[in-house]
Amino acid sequence: MINRRAFITLLGGTAAWPLAARAQQHALPIVGFVNSGSYNASWSNAFRKGLNETGYVEGQNVTVEYHWLEGQFDRLPSLMADLVHRHVAVIATPAGNYAAQAAKAATATIPIVFSVGQDPVKLGLVASLARPGGNATGINFFVQEIGAKRLGLLHDLVPKAVRIAVLVNPANLGTAATLQDIREAARALGLQIAILNASTSREIDAAFATLVSDRADALFVNGDVFFVTQNMQFAALAAHYGIPAAYDTRMFAEVGGLMSYGTDVPDTCRQVGVYTGRILKGAKPADLPVVQSTKFELVINAETARMLGLTVPDKLLVAADEVIE
Questions:
Q1: In this structure, are residues 132 and 285 in contact, taking their beta carbons and an 8 Å threshold?
Q2: Which of 23, 266, 260, 44 is closest to 141 using CA atoms?
Q3: Which terminus, N or C, of the chain has the lesser number of Cβ atoms within 10 Å?
Q4: CATH code for the domain of 123
Q5: Strands ordered across the beta sheet of 259-263
Q6: From CA 164, how far away is CA 217, in angstroms rounded?
Q7: How far apart are CA 306 and CA 258, in angstroms?
Q8: What is the pLDDT, as a whole number, of residue 21?
Q9: Residue 158 DSSP SS3
Q10: Residues 202 and 251 both lie in one domain
Q11: Helix, strand, coil percent content, the chain, rounded in steps of 5
């Protein structure tokens, strides 16, 4: 016969197990991962890899909340306010100026780890690259600086192209500086460029209609997180009009874009994960210098090149990190 008091004690202990498990789960530090673009498994996997390198495993000793905003930038202020209100341990904003600036505007105390394409000093995120000085640090991946290089690669791939349409998002704070570099590179290559603006899907459609009517020979798409969310639209329009186009990330080439040249974005996401882990261990953002990305990749879609009647030069085939057949 079971002792009644012992039985009640046993029940009480059993009932407490799930409560204890939940309490332990909630005790894990929470990282808010925020990207203004669309879900990308390679980016989130790379972030986890960076966390793992510092001893953090998602679900075991850290909780990561993923927020992919699909280009809905107007959601950023309320999302950041919620993360701040809940006192998350770190806000990580891989591959995006908008999310980094929204996080910085929302808090001066919660650590922020970013990766941005423009100069983070000019963006107001840090005091200097060597000594960030505040609650933010991260990675700078040189969207502006490598634009001229991408234009040169497009010229190598489409040597007969003289009139180049350059599509930019006027809402992007780095657009003016990037255009200055592109204009200088175009003059050096003997190219004529026409600037087109787009910040919505309809404006992208309109930009393609304009460049076709203006008889542009090729298209240069400036790096922008909104444009990345529209990569399928770009590939479809470029194929429809038969326009050779150059982009900044491999996501475009993977869905049918002609070529991409830019920073290895998954590697920057891994570095964001590493810095996030170091901060969880006690490091202060002010003491972690901004890392400058050193890995760049050229991806060429050979099938698209054949559809456009282009022959990829041997020097580009050798230089390419990947040729998509």
A1: yes
A2: 266
A3: N
A4: 3.40.50.2300
A5: 192-197, 163-168, 218-221, 245-247, 259-263, 296-301, 322-324
A6: 6
A7: 10
A8: 45
A9: coil
A10: yes
A11: 50, 20, 35
